[in-house]
Amino acid sequence: MKIAVIGSSGSGKTSVARRLAEHHGVPHVELDELHWGPNWTACPADEFRARVERALSAPGWVADGTYHGKLGDSILERADFVVWLDLPLRVVARRVTVRTLRRIRNEEELWNGNRETWGEAFFHRNSLMLWLVSTHRSHRRRYLERLDRYEFVRLRSQREIEAWLASETAS
Fold this sequence. Notes:
The protein has helices spanning about 15-25, 30-35, 45-55, 70, 75-80, 90-105, 120-125, 130-145, 160-170; strands at about 1-5, 30, 35, 40, 60-65, 80-85, 150-155. The chain contains 9 helices and 7 strands. The protein starts with a strand and ends with a helix.
């Protein structure tokens, strides 16, 4: 089984992907981990595509994220099924804020030694919060246009996510 889990930051992609990967006994591929190098250095597009290619060479996987700008629809095209976590902006903004504050307070390492900071998380011109607010609507529109070619489920609340996961992992 090859599953792509997509949605905005804070929608729960990684949590859902981990649960699905564990249930299906396949690797969880976290695209952020493949993309971000030390000191928040973005992986060059060619190298990133090669890393993703290697990670998705397994007979089954659950990948979270899309990185459409560097990967196009390659993740969606390889997936047997797509899970779209389409939560409202107010929900994902709250989740990102709480998650970021926890990570800063606990000095949690994310990928390759990276840690979130107050300035970069909330006050930098490229902050995750600013990016989330400015792209949420356009990403939703883009997903609506792109996903009609794929088998997918669209989950719009945590309740829907939990119900769908319960039915998916019941067997």
